[in-house]
Amino acid sequence: MNVKIIVRGKAQGSLLVAKNPINFLGGIDKKSGLVHDKKHDLFGKSIGNKILVFPFGVGSSVGAYTIYSLKYNNCAPLAMICLKADLTTASGCAISNIPLVVADKNDYDLLQENNQVTLDAIAGKIL
Amino acid sequence: MELTKEEEEALDGKQGETLALAYRTLVAIGEASNADRLIPIEWAHLSGVNYNTIGDAGKEFLSHLSNDARFKVKTTVNPMGFDFDSVSQYKLDDKFIENQRSIKNSYEKMGVIPSYSCIPYEIFDVPKQGTHVSFAESNAAIYANSFSGLKTNKEGAFSALASALTGKSPCSDLRDDDVRRPNLTIRMKVESRDELTYGMLGYFAGKVAGSSVALSGVNNLDRRSCKSLCAGMGTSGACGMFTFGEEKGEKIDFDKNEMQKIHDELNTSEKGDLITLGSPQLGIEEIGDLALMLKGRSFQKRCMIFCPRAIKGQMTDLGYTNEIKRAGGELLYDCCTCLSPLVDNKEVDSVVTNSVKGAYYLRTSNNVDVNLKSLKRIVEEETK
C-alpha cells in the first residue's frame, strides 16, 4: 500500500493496532512504554519496539516530548502509522527520528494486529 | 514538499544531527499541513519555557539539544515559571527551581535573547510589513498577524524551535495570502466595551472561526484591548488572525447573550483571594496607566502584576514602580499567570483577574476559581 511520508525512515516489525486515539502526555509511561490509561484499548500493553498503528494523537503538544523520552529510554515504537497526522505526533516522531506515515482509510483498515510489516517511509510503501 | 538541495542534505544529516532534527521537524509539520516548500523567516519566538509546561521530558530534550544546537535567527522566548529575583519569597521547591534553571540555561546556551516575555511585539522593534516570522505563543502570533503587519502561523513549540535553528518555516496556512482573507465576519453588537469585552469577543471568535476572521463594528482599540482580543482568541481555538471591517461570506453576531455565555463559562466565583494582572504581561503603557489609576489608592488584597524584565528600568525611572509598590502591588518579571506555580490552589481558592486567557488557565491548570472583571472594576472594588 502507498502512504504519505511525514517522517522518513525504514522499519520492520509486528503491528500493534489501537482503536482509540493516543494521548502521549497523559496515557503512556515514558520509562516503560506501557499504556497506563485505563480507558484506552491498549491498556497494559507496551508500545515499545512495535509498529504502532493508531488513528491520530490527541492532547497537549507537550506529548511530543513524551515520544522523545520513550526513544531515549529505548521503549519507543519502531515506527507509527496513522490515519491523520496531528502536530504532536508529527513533532514527537520528528525530534525522535521515528518513521511516521499516514495511510488512507481503505489501506489503514487492512492493518491487523501482529501482522509482520516492512515500512519503507522513504519510498512511501508498506509491505 | 519540494526541498532545495541544501535542505535535502541537511535533512540527511550532512550538516550534523541537530540540523537533521530541525529539518525533520519542519518537513513533518510541513507535510502534515500540506505545505509545498520551506521559506525563510526572520524572527522566531519560542514557547515551552515554564517547567510546568514541558516537564522533565522537555528539560532533558533541551539539555541534550543545547550541547551543539545554536539559533540561526533572532530568537526570543516566552515567560518562565517564576522570577528568579524574588524566588525566595515563594514556597517553591528546590527541584522546581533547579529544573527551571536548567531550561533557562539550555535556551541561553543556544543563543536566545533572554526576553522571557509573551509580548515580543511590544518590547522589540517590529520588522517591516509583510515579514515572515515564526511565533509560538498564541497571543503573539495573532497580534503579529493582526496588528503588526507580520506573517506567521500559530506555531507550536517545536515548529518555532525548528525555525529558530534553520531560519525557515513551512509555507502553509496563514503564510498564504488567500488563507489570510477571512470568509467569516463577526459583527460586534455589544455597546459598552472595555478590555474584558474584547477578551470575550476574542474567545468567542476562536470558537467559531477557521484560520482567519473579520471583525466589524470594532475600531479605536487601545493597546490593552488589542492584547486582550488576541489572548482571548488564542485560548479558545485555532484561528490565527483578525482583519477589521466586514468581509464577504458568513456573518455572525457577538451580542450580549453570547458574551454572557462566555462570562458564565469563565467567571466561577463572585470574589477572589488574590488578584493577578497579566496574560499577556503588561507593557510600559499599561503599567503607566495602572500607576495613574492607583494614585491615592491601595490594594486591599495581594495583587501580582506580571511584566517583562525589559521594561523594569524604564518603569523605575518613570516612577511607576514606586507608585505601584506604594499601592501594595507585587511586580513580577520573566513570568506570567499561565501555568504559574506561584498561584497555588492549596493556598488560594479563587483569583480575581481581567484576563480571559488567565481565567481559562487558572481554572483548568491551577484548579482555582476565577472572579473575572474589568481592570476598572478591579481598581474600584479591590482598592481603597
Short description:
The complex is a heterodimer of chains A (127) and B (384). Chain A is of the alpha/beta class and 127 residues long.
What would you note in describing this structure?
The complex is a heterodimer of chains A (127) and B (384). Chain A is α/β, with parallel strands linked by helices. Chain A is 22% helix and 25% strand. Chain A has helices spanning 24-27, 63-72, 87-96, 105-108, and strands spanning 4-7, 9-17, 51-54, 79-82, 100-102, 116-121, 125-126. A seven-stranded mixed β-sheet of chain A has the order 1-5-4-3-2-6-7, covered by helices on one side. In chain A, helix 2 (63-72) runs parallel beside helix 3. Chain A is globular, with a radius of gyration of 13 Å. Chain B is an alpha/beta fold and 384 residues long. Chain B has 16 helices and 14 strands. Chain A binds chain B through residues 4-8, 30, 61-62, 64-66, 68-69, 72, 85-87, 90-91, 93-95, 97, 100, and chain B through 11, 21, 24-25, 27-29, 31-33, 48, 53-58, 60-61, 156-159, 162.
